[in-house]
UniProtKB/TrEMBL annotation:
SUPFAM superfamilies, per the entry: TPR-like
Ranges that cross the membrane: none
Naturally occurring in which organism (per UniProt): Protopolystoma xenopodis
InterPro entries: HAT, Syf1-like, TPR-like_helical_dom_sf
Protein name in UniProt: Pre-mRNA-processing factor 6
Top-level taxon of origin: Eukaryota
One GO cellular component, as annotated: catalytic step 2 spliceosome
SMART domains: HAT (SM00386)
GO aspect biological process, one term: spliceosomal tri-snRNP complex assembly
Length: 168
C-alpha cells in the first residue's frame, strides 16, 4: 500500500497486491496456519472485488495445492466456476477452469467460455486441442476461423494439423 501525501488516501496497486498474495500461498506441505491466513486474505479479496479474475484463480490454486485429496479439488473447481460466473469475460479464468475440471467436462467448459468470448484465440486453440479426432479438430478450426479470420495463430494451427495428417 502507498499513502498519498496530497489527499491522505491510501492507494493500492492491485497487481502488486495480488502478486504479494500469490507469494503468500504456501507450496505443498505448507504450514496449516499459513493456509488459513491465505484463504482468509483471498476470501476478502473475492468479496471486496468479485469481478477481479486473479483473486478467483489464486483461490482455486490455493485449494488445489493445499487441501486433502479429492475434497480440495472439488472446492477448487467450485471456486473457479463461481469466478467464471462473476467474470464471464475473463479468458484466463475459463482456461484455468478447463484445466481444473475433469477431462470429460473440459470440452463443455470451453464451449461455454467461447459463447462468452467468441474472439478468444486461446480458447479456440484449447477447444481444438481437447478434441480427439482429426475431423472434430478441423471442424473447431473452421468455426474458429469464421469468428477470428485474421488470427495468424489459428491459421498456423489449422495448417499444422493439415500438414501433420498429410505427411504422417
Amino acid at each position: 500500500m502507498v499513502s498519498d501525501n496530497v489527499s491522505g488516501q491510501t492507494v493500492v496497486d492491485p497487481k502488486g497486491y495480488l502478486t504479494d498474495l500469490q507469494s503468500m500461498i504456501p507450496q505443498h506441505g505448507g504450514d496449516i496456519n499459513d493456509m488459513k491466513k491465505a484463504r482468509l486474505l483471498l476470501k476478502s479479496v473475492r468479496e471486496t472485488n468479485p469481478k477481479h479474475p486473479p483473486a478467483w484463480i489464486a483461490s482455486a490454486r490455493l485449494e488445489e495445492i493445499g487441501g486433502k485429496l479429492q475434497a480440495s479439488l472439488v472446492v477448487a473447481r467450485n471456486l473457479i466456476m463461481k469466478g467464471c460466473e462473476e467474470c464471464p469475460k475473463s479468458e484466463d479464468l475459463w482456461l484455468e477452469a478447463s484445466r481444473l475440471v475433469p477431462s470429460d467436462q473440459a470440452r463443455a467448459v470451453v464451449a461455454q467460455a467461447i459463447r462468452h468470448l467468441p474472439q478468444s484465440v486461446r480458447l479456440w486453440a484449447k477447444a481444438a486441442n481437447l478434441e480427439v479426432e482429426v475431423k472434430a479438430k478441423k471442424e473447431v478450426f473452421k468455426r474458429a476461423l469464421e469468428q477470428v479470420p485474421n488470427s495468424v495463430t489459428l491459421w498456423k494451427l489449422a495448417v499444422e494439423l493439415e500438414v501433420s495428417n498429410f505427411f504422417p
